Amino acid sequence: MSNILFVASECTPFIKTGGLADVMGSLPQALKREAKQEVRVILPLYDEMDDIWKDQMEYLTTFDVQLGWRKQEAQLFKLEYDQITYYFIANDYYFTRKGIYGYYDDGERFVFFSHAVIESLRHLDYRPEVLHAHDWQAGITVALANIMKPIEEMKTIFTIHNLKYQGVMPLHIFDDFFNLRREHIAGMEWDGMLNCLKSALFHADKITTVSPSYAEEIKDPYYGEGIHTILQERSDDLIGVLNGIDTKEYNPSTDPNLFVNYRSARSKKRQNRIKLEEEISLPYKDGTPLYIIITRLVEQKGLYLVQHILDEFLEEDVHFVVLGTGDPEFEIYFADLANRYPDKVKAILSFDEGLARRLYASADFFMMPSKFEPCGLSQLIALQYKTVPIVRETGGLKDSVSSYNEWTGEGNGFSFMNYNAHDLLNVLHYSLTIYGNTTEWQNLLKNVNKSQFSWKESAHQYAEIYANLVPESILG
Ligand code: ADP
């Protein structure tokens, strides 16, 4: 058993904007359950978090965080939830804003958070053997842990959940916010900027990412987001471990958000669909398949492909619902689409966990034609709710969805390879053909029902990585 400290910027059920939060909210439990690891999690304490969580927290201490020539105060809180210990770092300036990201000084905010995490190690009632940081917001903790050695023997792991977001800011931040010798700039600088993600890639003992395919892809310039040469250099230390989902949390037979709970019965999915379409004011039509998208509305999710062909696909007898928030360009597009097809299309431009669950439960098809996808959890959730995923063959989508093959009867979804709108349209038409053929459709659903993406296997893979890092003499 090793002592692991996860560092991240979001975690369910406290605060979530995307898949990172789902992983932070379920992997520690899985590591405990499946591989007997002690994992604790440290997060920023955002004003945005619900009071029900804040009210349960135990105040531990207040300490100063030195940022260049100035100091900021941090308060440390603790909360036990679902058998896991969480620590939270509060600060009156950086985390008292609406939402959690999207501010001009996000870089500085998470540089502060990272310094505070390292400083907090002196105050915690816990001595981690491995600091496991997730995504750019936690990247600087890896660099500081390696340079400052707050715990001499502590090892570091950095997990890339999305290489696109790197936490890039002007280099003068190094002088203003760090108390390190100038020689350390080299490990943190990339392309003339201070880069949080690169800092972690440079300093981490091991680097992981969230699917085997993405681990390969990011060494290539097309997927490498300008940083592939570093990943090539560190190739021997880069491991892809496929994410799982919390199958207790995402369980259609117990999910309280649904109108009707079910295991796999299509009739019960239909009952959910009828009530859902009533809820969102879409006129239900028997026999018409429901296609959905639930996502952050950003280019990554393949929305330009969708935009290019959706009018043509809507000539078919189908319903389409999108739930998402993000780039105004896509919000405007989907709102306009819904106006033009009031009987077929609904665009719900908000973040709504309950509605998302009801959509997963009601839909026949889940569309996720991503340009790139480190792992993707939505397609796993869709499968869990017996909804057929339609994906582009990239990253974790490629590792979790295989295209249905009429001749062999194999495959749990539909997929296409090239980033090409007409390839998406073709596969959408093909999905409709299979939907209309009872034998093929039943075959496909059998495969969907068998798909399982729990954390079990991946938890063991992480445990092995920890065991290789921490010499046995230190293991408890
Ligand atoms: P990413 O992390 O890139 O956003 P993932 O597929 O890994 O993509 O995870 C997305 C998670 O966020 C899923 O749990 C999905 O259901 C959820 N989600 C995305 N947009 C919304 C929304 N508008 N309302 C509710 N849940 C959403």
TrEMBL record:
Name the species this protein comes from: Oceanobacillus polygoni
Instruction: Write the Enzyme Commission number(s) for this entry.
Output: 2.4.1.21
Reactions the enzyme catalyzes:
[(1->4)-alpha-D-glucosyl](n) + ADP-alpha-D-glucose = [(1->4)-alpha-D-glucosyl](n+1) + ADP + H(+)
According to the entry, every stretch annotated as the Starch synthase catalytic domain falls at: 3-233
NCBIfam families reported for this sequence: glgA, PRK00654.1-1
Q: Does the keyword Glycosyltransferase apply?
A: yes
Q: In which pathway does it act?
A: Glycan biosynthesis; glycogen biosynthesis
Question: What PANTHER family does UniProt report for this protein, alphabetically?
Answer: ALPHA AMYLASE DOMAIN-CONTAINING PROTEIN, GRANULE-BOUND STARCH SYNTHASE 1, CHLOROPLASTIC/AMYLOPLASTIC
Q: What does this protein do?
A: Synthesizes alpha-1,4-glucan chains using ADP-glucose.
Family membership noted in the UniProt record: Belongs to the glycosyltransferase 1 family. Bacterial/plant glycogen synthase subfamily.
Gene name of the encoded protein: glgA
Q: Where is the Glycosyl transferase family domain?
A: 282-427
In Swiss-Prot or TrEMBL terms, this protein is called Glycogen synthase
- Locate the residues binding ADP-alpha-D-glucose: 16
Name the enzyme group at the top EC level: transferase
Q: Which UniProt keywords apply?
A: Glycogen biosynthesis, Glycosyltransferase, Transferase
> Keyword Acetylation: yes or no?
no
